[in-house]
Amino acid sequence: MSGESSAQEAENDFRIFLTQYRQHLKDIRAHFAGQTLDGADSEGQNEGGDETDDDNILEPGCGMQAATVTEDSKEEAVDQDPWTASEKDALFHGLAVHSRLRPDLIASRIQTKTIPEVCAFLEALENAASHHPLPDRRRDTLLPAMEVTDSWITWEERQAAHLLLAEPEWEAYAQDAQRQSILTAHPEDAPDSPRTPLLAQWKAQDALRALDKHRLRAMARILRHGEASAEDGSPPATSVPDDANLDPVVRGRSQSSTPSTRELSPKSRRRLQKRLYMRRKRAEKTGTEAVQDEGLLKVGRPAKARPPPKKTGPPRKRGRRGSAAEDADATQRNGDGSEEGEDEGNDEGDDGEEEAGKGDYAHPHKGGLTAPYKARRLLQEAGITPAVLAEHKLDMFDGIGVARFLEHARDDGTAISISRNTLALLYDILYDIVTEIVRRAIVSREQEVNLKAGNKAWRVKNPDGILPKNVEHALEMMGAGAPPRPGKRKRSADNEEDDGDNWGDEQEDGDGDEASASDTQVTSDAQDAKDAQEAQFDLAEDIYPAFFRLPSAYAEKHGDILPDDMDEEALERELDEEDELDAEDCVAQETYEENLWLSMQEQPAIN
DNA sequence: AGCTCGAGCTTACTTGGAAG
DNA sequence: CTTCCAAGTAAGCTCGAGCT
Fold this sequence. Notes:
Among the domains are: 1-30; 83-133; 428-483, no CATH class. Helices cover 56% and strands 1% of the residues. It has helices at 3-32, 55-58, 74-77, 85-97, 103-110, 115-130, 150-185, 195-209, 213-232, 248-252, 266-286, 323-337, 342-347, 371-381, 386-391, 399-409, 420-453, 468-477, 493-509, 525-536, 540-543, 552-556, 568-601; strands spanning 210-211, 418-419. Helix 5 (103-110) packs across helix 6. It binds a DNA duplex through residues 221, 270-271, 273-275, 277-279, 281-282, 296-304, 316-321, 325, 328, 331-332, 335, 362-363, 365-372, 374, 400, 488-490. Residues 36-61, 226-369, 478-533 are annotated as: Disordered.
């Protein structure tokens, strides 16, 4: 057949897949919203239809306390905090989304109830259900799990690949349409039109949507500049200063800060001394004069002069080069202004390209802006400042570290990026975890201080301070072991012994020096390596381990799995039934897949 | 405190290829 | 042919760590 008809066929397949995919998406969203497939909310519906006549009793919105579930279960379910209607709503919502086996997830959804309280409520519900037995439901009335053949999976994979390509385009289109409608609602000539701030906001959003390694590095640079200006006490820059616009001398010393040596801490003083020493050594090596300014120098390779243009011939066309390229050019030239030996290069410049090969000049063939510079320029033009990054929750992670992770994430060298939303989500997760750790550490410390206050044998030096061991205790309570402490690379044997002794001492009366606890660490290299390896595979699940609750009905039957007086005939019968059910399921599966293939032949509704 | 080494980072240069 | 692009590379700076 012709390629045209096969293309049409593929397009039709994709439309069918899309219809199914959207339905599936809708179902999943309904599930997580706690709704049943027919769109009704899950209120009052327990899993497996556990309640029949009790709908009115267990209805979450009825405002009754859990203690009123049944008379018999009153004792178990009574607790100090009666369940409000909204809490019961949330509980049934959670039951629909998760299951009765995961009270931890349900409790986290309710937020105001603990796992034991949820367990007590579920127990009460089960007791209530046991007093109102359900009609015997045969297993063959339940829908089997459907297994499809490889050919269907291959077909779905193919369609999914198409979807993956098409989705970003659709999203962009939908967003454009939305923005256009907003702009239409706000005419430009209207007084106090929010168009300008909106456009600026959208530009920033677009610049930060997909963050590749270059943008991540540019972000890290912006944040670093922000921090540096904050430390200097200078007003925060509204945007990253463009080096090209700075005076070369100022730029060379842009990070210079010259505090008096006497004001410096011993650590800073030593750092400064080393810095100056290294400058002297480098100057000796190159035969130049060392810069004795205490501030930081401009890092990076110094720029060479460019050879002058040819005296004959037409002037070079510079039409398509952007202004930034001109700026970069200027940067490179200006950069040399502060360097030693620059004058010679300029003096000899009139000799033209003859001299270019001698190394005094840069190569006459000048490159354009490279990707890192373009990313930097893009963010600058979009008005990305540390405040904007903070607003988008992008100031938590080190951009360089994330960029390096992305670089190593794929072996095939494919360029990949990370979504702004993903980073913001990680920010939220980290925020939640750290908040919980801090909360538990404070509680741990308060309890410890209270306990010790009643006994004169204990001496608490700093009752308001949180100790590392409190944090470790908090981590233990959350099911995560204490992270490996940062180790030192090499220590002499005697030092290690000293540390070992101190470690024990400071564990006992560590109240005096909380901040320097990391100095007291002693772990063997092998242990460090092992811990590091374990830490590498830590996941969020390790922080919050799953809490399973086996319903009491299961626990009671535990002893009867293989009774001694087993009825062989009954067992045979049950196994035969099992086989029959399996056979029926297989037939159902085949029918199901046949229907799937048939549904492809129907023209789907295009939406 | 002086000195050395090396990692890590930034910046600019080089150069082959693509695009106009 | 000119201009632009971008990966790779060179050059320089800072700083941590460790030795003497």
